[in-house]
Design brief:
By secondary structure, the protein is of the alpha+beta class. The chain has one domain: 3-Layer(aba) Sandwich (NADH Oxidase), CATH 3.40.109.10. Bound molecules: flavin mononucleotide. The site of flavin mononucleotide has 11 residues, from loops.
Length: 224
C-alpha cells in the first residue's frame, strides 16, 4: 500500500441566489423534466461529435464513491459498428422475449409496446455505451477497487440523460440482456462491464411514446 496523500482544500465556487430565484428555477426545471421521455423512434439526423462529448463531460461531473469515477463512456457513431450492435442486441432480445423473460415481466412491458426489434440502434446517429468499472489498473499494474460502483455509474447516467434532455435531444435507456456482446464488439478490457446502452439523437417526425403516468408525489414522498 502506498502512503495516502494529504488532503488539499480549495474554496467552493458558489453564489447564493435569492430564494425567489431558487423557487423559480426549481419550477422551471420541474416543467422541463416533466417533458423528458424515453424515445424509441429516432431520426437519422446526425448530432455533432462535440455536442455529444460535451454531454458525456457533463455526465462525468457526477459524484462517485471515493471519487473513483468508475465509468467509461464509449461513443459509437460508426454505422458498421452500430449495425453490429443492433444485430447482437436483437439476437439476445429475441431469445429474451421468446424464451427467457417470465410471464410477469412480459406483462409489465406490455404497456410500453416493446419487442425484440431494436431498429433505433442503427437509426439513431449515436450510441453512448456506458461501462461500469469494478476496478482500475493503475500505471504500476496494481488494481484499484471502485466503491459504490453501480450507484456511481447510475448517477452519472442520470446526469447524462438529464443533460441530453436539457440540450433538446432525446435518448433511450436501453439494457439488452445480457450485454456481454458490447465488450466484444467494442474491444473493452475485463474490468469494464456494460451498464447501459443509450441511443441519442433527434426524434423521428411524428414519433410516438407510450401513454404512461408518473406515480403521484404522495405515493413516493414521505416528509418526516
Ligand atoms: C435501468 C433501465 C433500463 C431500461 N431498459 C430498457 C430497455 O431495455 N428497453 C426499452 O425500450 N426501455 C428501457 N428502459 C426505459 C423504460 O421503459 C422507461 O424509462 C419507462 O417506461 C418510463 O418511461 P419514460 O422514460 O418515457 O418516462 C429502461 C429504463 C431504465 C431506467
Amino acid at each position: 500500500m502506498s502512503k495516502p496523500e494529504r488532503p488539499r482544500f480549495i474554496p467552493l465556487e458558489y453564489h447564493r441566489p435569492p430564494e425567489y430565484e431558487v423557487r423559480a428555477r426549481t419550477r422551471e426545471l420541474l416543467q422541463l423534466m416533466r417533458r423528458r421521455r424515453s424515445v424509441r423512434d429516432f431520426s437519422p439526423d446526425p448530432v455533432p461529435t462535440e455536442i455529444l462529448t460535451d454531454l458525456i463531460c457533463t455526465a462525468s461531473q457526477a459524484p462517485s464513491g471515493a471519487n473513483r469515477q468508475p465509468w467509461r463512456f464509449v461513443l459509437v457513431t460508426d454505422l458498421t459498428t452500430r449495425r453490429k450492435i443492433r444485430e447482437a442486441a436483437e439476437a439476445e432480445e429475441k431469445k429474451s422475449y421468446e424464451e427467457r423473460m417470465p410471464e410477469e415481466w412480459l406483462l409489465a412491458l406490455e404497456p410500453l409496446g416493446t419487442n425484440w426489434h431494436k431498429e433505433f440502434l442503427d437509426i439513431a446517429p449515436a450510441l453512448i455505451v456506458v461501462f461500469r468499472k469494478d476496478w482500475e489498473t493503475l500505471a504500476d499494474g496494481r488494481k484499484q477497487k471502485g466503491y459504490y460502483v453501480s450507484e456511481s455509474a447510475g448517477i452519472a447516467c442520470g446526469f447524462l440523460i438529464s443533460a441530453i434532455h436539457q440540450a433538446g435531444l432525446v435518448c433511450l435507456t436501453h439494457t439488452p440482456s445480457p450485454m456481454k456482446f458490447l465488450v466484444e464488439i467494442l474491444h473493452r478490457p475485463p474490468e469494464e462491464k456494460p451498464f447501459l446502452l443509450i441511443p441519442v439523437g433527434y426524434p423521428a417526425p411524428g414519433a410516438r411514446i407510450p401513454d404512461i403516468r408518473r406515480k403521484p408525489l404522495a405515493e413516493i414522498l414521505s416528509v418526516v
